[in-house]
């Protein structure tokens, strides 16, 4: 159902907050027969807030995600600048763009009996790969899939303190902090599934604690959150169980990893004797690699390549083979590469309109044609660059 | 007489100093004062060796159709009065032009080839012709030369006047050959390229062997020819240890037995299993057109690297393979 917030002709931010806190359903029926929006908003906004119904006609327009949905679906997934923007504007609007529409089309036609297909979003810095991924995640959440979202795989290969030797396998290393943070967010995102899915074997944590066969997955997650030492193993168990059980058809699984090139690169972590650690020696990375292979079915795998945050990769690298390396490419092969590029003129216009409506551009020349041309030239239609430029205006 | 010759400025001198002033007047700034006694010699300006006035430069008397090789028969420094060209050289000052050729050190510093104009070279060729033989009439284009004489030898001879005729630089011999003119199969070519390393140029397909380790030119030539022979024969042989060639040693991507093939095979098998279609075999699966397209796209992606066309080709082939619309 379309969000009622879009039908209101006034732009008062306070109003949004007020109506947003009430149940949207009551207002929907009563606002449905309101006058359609006037033309500047028609350029930059659409009232269709269900990603499943997004199509070519919505390309370039922003759709609104209700704020409580935001907290439920994206506890940890949004880029930090976008989170700031959401806080400032008091609304979360994502632009519907072609790469996301293409992916939505594929996902809608997924054959759940076939092995999971891997889609790789790649593109230059700041073109919108992470936000496209968020669009897809929102779609899958609305369709009631189980979302396995790793917001930034690069965080797991650099600047990790407290590496412990893994209790499960002596060769590998645990990352208790990262694992426990992720488990907390995973729990927030997928509350309802955690009681439905039952583990299929018994897991013994230590002498006193164990999880019996048939107990809900939520218990494993709890164990990981409370006993930080076992967090990495808990993550490993969650991944294993989900992979095994997605084929059974109880739920559809979406594996979304941002910065997947971190899995096959180098790490900046060193052991106490200063010898470097390879990615596969980290238990989290090892288990995640198993997750992105296509030997399971009942879902889809959407990945993003990212140079920002990557280690030991040149700044201009954005092509799949450059960032994934030989090993990564061979593991992900066959995948569908989807290019995310800079804004086309329509999208650029829509973005500027959105900023103008929210009174973000305070410069007096910002709404003139010359001002727009200047912004176009300075940002080279790169979404990230445009956002940074507009922050100064 | 002498008084009349007094330069005007000396008239300002006091009269008591006339004699000394007179003797100094005899020597203007350009000439050192002669230590002659002042009163006895009264050299006049007319008796002094006259300094010749500068004649006009020779360029003004040159005819346009003169014989230039006789002006500059050998390599000579640049003489501005002899070269009739209005050449300017040098870094200009602000709102100025480069310096003219008169007294220009820059033009002197650089090598000039005024002794090697086309006319001069024609004359040299004419003179050398009596020592040369005719070019064979049958070799009138490059392809024929390549076909009949695939190996090119380059040597340099040095002539100089000095105490010794020998020049150590003359022993260098360069042998160039195109690998397409050698009879090599795929394995032999790859092995030869690996053996010679830097000496092979991929864009022109030319192998260059430069030898100078022997003291004489003919020894170096023999050595270069020997190297070529040895390389040719060795590259045809296959050694025991060549079986251990790994994927990292391969020069180009080979799809057969690669991980990409394994992946696609597994994927296809799983798809077939999902559709309950269990009686398929490997060869059949790998022989379909989609897999063939996929193979081509992966090979081009790996060999040429990522660019728009290879990536879009790869995307299309994967989509067709996995039956995505």
Q: How would you explain this protein's 3D organization?
A:
The complex is a heterodimer of chains A (393) and B (325). With 393 residues, chain A is of the alpha/beta class. Chain A has 16 helices and eleven strands. Chain A has helices at 13-21, 24-31, 39-44, 67-73, 80-89, 98-108, 129-142, 176-189, 191-196, 217-226, 231-246, 283-291, 320-332, 345-357, 369-379, 383-392, and strands at residues 62-65, 92-95, 117-122, 146-150, 164-165, 173-174, 203-204, 210-211, 253-258, 299-304, 335-339. Chain A is globular. Chain B is mainly alpha-helical and 325 residues long. Chain B has three domains: 62-131, no CATH class; 142-239, Double Stranded RNA Binding Domain (2-Layer Sandwich), CATH 3.30.160; 253-322. Helices cover 38% and strands 6% of the residues of chain B. Chain B contains twelve helices and four strands. Chain B has a four-stranded antiparallel β-sheet with strand order 1-2-4-3. In chain B, a hairpin with a 4-residue loop joins strand 3 (200-201) and strand 4 (206-211). The longest helix of chain B is centred in the last third of the chain and has 20 residues, at 217-236. Residues 1-8 and 21-33 of chain B have low confidence and may be disordered.
Helix content of chain A: 40-55%
User: In terms of quaternary structure, what is this?
Assistant: heterodimer
Q: What is the gyration radius of chain B calculated from CA atoms?
A: 41 Å
Q: What sort of overall outline of chain A do the alpha carbons produce when their principal axes are compared?
A: globular
Region (Disordered) (chain A): 36-59
Biased composition (Basic and acidic residues) (chain A): 47-59
Pfam families (chain A): DAP3
Keywords (chain A): Mitochondrion, Ribonucleoprotein, Ribosomal protein, Transit peptide
